[in-house]
Design a protein that fits this description.
By secondary structure, the protein is α+β, with helices and mostly antiparallel strands.
Length: about 270
């Protein structure tokens, strides 16, 4: 994978060992399943809605599109050309509450995407989130049955940590950029690392420091973790298999996050009772 194996097991070795911190710094939690084009997708969304309406009573539709541009060059013949393609489709958005939703589900003919809205207040644990979305995903699979070909599974979590009077407890190796500037409050930094296993599992780690203009003058550290499996040969559309894969993803992200903030920060800030 590229990430040191000991880091991925340093804090917990299994999903069942994870315990929520007293202070929740999550700002985004999402799970996505990517498919080949699903046949008759739009025709079955009404049926899908009828089954999930008790869980997600609010439905909206929006137009979406995607395009590609392929450039071909032939130096021998001194020729070049390009082929531009675009495709329009409909996305369906389902929420559990019209004004203040806690969960959003976005579907189109290539994916179903589950998002926890305002996770700082609405997220308790990954186990709870997974149980909630799995009821909906099971219905989705039953509706489309053999028409879906799973191509990718993605888990993404974003944490925002304030740099306040407790920054001395943070892992300073992650914050080396702060020593480069005289006035760090006027500087935004960002870095990204991507590693890929032979199986096709990809880990994308992004981190940066930004000015928290909306709430205060404090700076925020962003820890953005994405783990995905995009090798279809490694994927099975089975409940236990996919749930176990997502639990493993969540465990790896938990360990990466703990490493980023450090054990001192966990003990003295995240698990401190206010």
């Amino acid at each position: 994978m590229g990430i040191k194996a000991e880091i991925l097991k340093e804090y917990v070795s299994s999903f069942d060992e994870i315990k929520p911190f007293n202070k929740n710094t999550l700002k985004y939690v999402g799970i996505a399943f990517q498919f080949d084009n699903i046949i008759d997708f739009d025709n079955n969304q009404t049926l899908f809605y009828s089954y999930v309406k008790s869980l997600l009573p609010y439905k909206t539709e929006r137009p979406a599109s995607e395009g590609s541009l392929v450039l071909t060059i032939s130096p021998v013949q001194n020729q070049f050309g390009f082929n531009q393609q675009s495709e329009s489709y409909t996305e369906y958005i389902y929420t559990d509450n019209k004004e203040n939703p806690t969960i959003r589900v976005i579907t189109n003919k290539k994916k179903i995407d589950f998002q926890c809205i305002d996770p700082e207040n609405n997220y308790t644990s990954f186990k709870d989130f997974l149980e909630k979305i799995w009821k909906i995903f099971t219905i989705f699979c039953q509706i489309y049955d053999k028409k879906i070909n799973l191509m990718e599974v993605v888990l993404r979590k974003i944490n925002k940590v304030e740099i306040d009077g407790n920054e001395t407890f943070l892992n300073q190796n992650i914050l080396y950029e702060s020593s480069l500037f005289d006035n760090f409050a006027n500087t935004n930094t960002y870095k990204e690392f991507t590693t890929v296993e032979d199986s096709g599992e990809t880990v994308i780690f992004r981190s940066g420091i930004i000015r928290n203009k909306a709430e205060s003058d404090n700076n925020l550290i962003i820890y953005d973790f994405t783990i995905k499996q995009d090798n279809p040969n490694e994927l099975k559309l089975e409940s236990k298999f996919l749930q176990e894969m997502l639990k493993q993803f969540s465990t790896k992200i938990f360990n990466l996050y703990c490493y980023c903030v450090s054990k001192d920060y966990i003990d003295k800030v995240l698990n401190k009772n206010d």
